[in-house]
Structure formats: C-alpha cells, structure tokens
C-alpha cells in the first residue's frame, strides 16, 4: 500500500513577494487522521454508543456490518505505521454501489474468475462480464440476510427500461434479483451445463432479522410468485398453530433456508443442469481460516 503525504496549495497569481503570504496550506493529513482516530476511539468506548449501535444501527438492512470491526481497531488504524492485515482488506467496502470488481486467482490448482456485480444492473450487462468460455463450474454467492434488503438506485428508470426490453420485471429486492441473476447465468451456459455451487452466507443474520428484529420472511416472499417458472411461495403453513412464538424456532429458520435452496434447485432442474451443490455458512465468510475451509468444500464439489 502506498501512502502519500503532502499539502494542497490554493491561491491565485500574485507577485513573488506576496506568494508565500497569500498561499493556504491544508494541515498534515497524517496528523489530522490521528486526531480523528483518537476522537472516534473515545466516542466508541462509551457504553451508550455501543449499545445503541448493537440494538439499532448495526442490524439495519443495507448497512455495512464491518463498521464495528473497524471502530474496535480505530486507534491501531490511525497510527502512522499502520498496515492493513488480510482480515482488514477482506472487510473493506467497495468504492461505490455500482462497482464491478473482477479478478483471477488459483485455489488448490483450480483457476477462478471472480466477478462482483454488487448492486449493478446485472440484467443488462452480465453478458459482457461472462468472458470465460466453457467454464467447468459456476460458484454463486448469496447472503441469506438479503431477503429483506432492497437495491438503492437513485435513477431506476434506465434500468427499468432495460428490463422491459428483455421482457423481465425490475425488482429492487436483493434476494429476488439474485435468483433472477442465477437464472440469467444458466441461460448463458445452457449448452455447456457446468456444475453449479451455491454458497449461502449469513444464516445467523437471517435468524437475527427474523427472530430478534421481527422482519418476517413471508412479508417479502409468502404471497409472491417469482422464479422461472413461477412458483407459489407458501412455505409457512403449519406455523400458525404457534401464535406466541412463531419465529423463535431454529427449525423454522432451517425451513426457510431449504425453501431458498429449492428456488435455485428449481432453476437447475428446469434447464437440466447437474445436481446443485450447496454450502451454507452462519456468518459472512470473511475469516481467512473459514475461507480456506470453504475452498476445500468447493474443491470437493468440483471433483464429485
């Protein structure tokens, strides 16, 4: 990582004798960063602030779950000799919600091309991203907690028009967009029919939002028809008998996870692809040790 130090001159054309007098210099950025880090660290140490963050802001859909992680280490990050560790880089946010990241890497002798489409209009541009011909496998990653999240787009009209040209419906819900994207990928690989691996992350976040925050899953999917072909979404009959605590059962969360998996399997079966391999993880899979474990599972699925 390159660190640059300097100042910004703001001024106008003057005589040499008055140039130094009229020049304005911004403060040393390193000193400024240290002061901000110290102030943030003191605020973050307040018990009331941490409780407020834990109870409200850290669990809001769409908010970065890693802010608390960075604030816990803010004093270290603010030091002049700070160098980010691997865990820091994994959790770092993208520049903006429309960034498309693409990289190539090898894991256990398998070559991967990773494409992060994030919140972009994948329906319109994904064909341009699929450069690899005859892929041996497709790895698709979805957060289980995204069932209640929506894509924040300031100007959705152009995207809606692009969907109308493709006879598809624009839907801001992240989970439904993910399933629609999965369908689009399959149609692009319909002749090769590679193996497909589905990685579902943040099962713990799914449970937290449904049980602790009372954001019901069926509010978004129980009365909707979606998928290709359309499938009625009524996976919750039978839970009505438990009126007191209808959402605090781990089996209920497992049932929702199985329901989500079934939507992806429905797409796989519809197009005659090989059996879908599924990996479900409790958290966001940013721990390097956990990533290695997942890579071993992926490698095993590829060699079945």
Radius of gyration: 24 Å
| Helix fraction by DSSP (H/I, runs of at least 4) | 40-55%
Cα(first) to Cα(last) distance is: 40 Å
Read across the widest sheet, the strand sequence of neighbours is 5-6-9
What name is given to the CATH topology of the largest domain?
Rossmann fold
Describe the largest sheet. 3 strands, parallel
Q: Helix and strand string, N-terminal first?
A: EHEHHHHHEEHEHHEHHEEHEH
Superfamily (CATH H level) name of the largest domain: P-loop containing nucleotide triphosphate hydrolases
Note the total helix count: 13
* Alpha-beta content class: alpha/beta
Total DSSP E strands: 9
Strand content: 5-15%
CATH architecture of the largest domain: 3-Layer(aba) Sandwich
Keywords: GTP-binding, Metal-binding, Nucleotide-binding, Transducer
InterPro entries: Gprotein_alpha_su, GproteinA_insert, P-loop_NTPase
GO molecular function, one term: G-protein beta/gamma-subunit complex binding
In words, what does this structure look like?
The protein is α/β, with parallel strands linked by helices. It has helices spanning 16-22, 29-44, 47-55, 67-72, 74-77, 86-91, 122-129, 157-165, 174-188, 203-212, 218-221, 250-270, 288-302, and strands spanning 9-10, 24-25, 101-107, 110-116, 137-143, 195-201, 225-226, 231-232, 277-280. A hairpin with a 4-residue loop joins β7 and β8.
């Amino acid at each position: 990582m390159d660190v640059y130090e300097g100042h910004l001159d703001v001024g106008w054309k003057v005589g040499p004798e008055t140039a130094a007098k009229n020049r304005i210099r911004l403060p040393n950025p390193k000193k400024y960063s240290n002061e901000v880090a110290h102030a943030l660290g003191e605020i973050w140490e307040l018990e009331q602030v941490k409780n407020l963050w834990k109870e409200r802001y850290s669990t809001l859909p769409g908010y970065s779950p890693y802010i608390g992680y960075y604030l816990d280490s803010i004093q270290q990050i603010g030091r002049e000799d700070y160098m980010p560790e691997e865990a820091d880089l994994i959790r770092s946010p993208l520049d903006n919600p429309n960034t498309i990241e693409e990289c190539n890497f090898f894991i256990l002798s398998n070559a991967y091309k990773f494409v992060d489409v994030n919140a972009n209009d994948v329906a319109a541009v994904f064909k341009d991203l699929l450069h690899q011909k005859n892929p041996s496998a497709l790895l698709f990653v979805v957060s289980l907690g995204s069932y209640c999240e929506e894509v924040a787009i300031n100007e959705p009209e152009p995207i809606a028009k692009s969907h109308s040209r493709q006879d598809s419906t624009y839907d801001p819900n992240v989970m439904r967009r993910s399933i629609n994207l999965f369908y689009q990928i399959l149609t692009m690989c319909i002749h090769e029919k590679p193996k497909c691996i589905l990685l579902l992350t943040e099962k713990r976040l799914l449970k937290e939002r449904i049980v602790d925050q009372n954001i019901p899953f069926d509010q978004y999917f129980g009365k909707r028809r979606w998928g290709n072909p359309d499938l009625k979404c009524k996976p919750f009959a039978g839970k009505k008998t438990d009126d007191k605590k209808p959402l605090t059962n781990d089996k209920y969360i497992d049932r929702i996870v199985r329901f989500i998996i079934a939507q992806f399997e429905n797409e796989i079966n519809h197009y005659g692809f090989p059996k879908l391999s599924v990996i479900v993880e409790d958290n966001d899979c940013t721990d390097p040790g956990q990533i290695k474990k997942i890579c071993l599972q992926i490698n095993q699925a590829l060699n079945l």
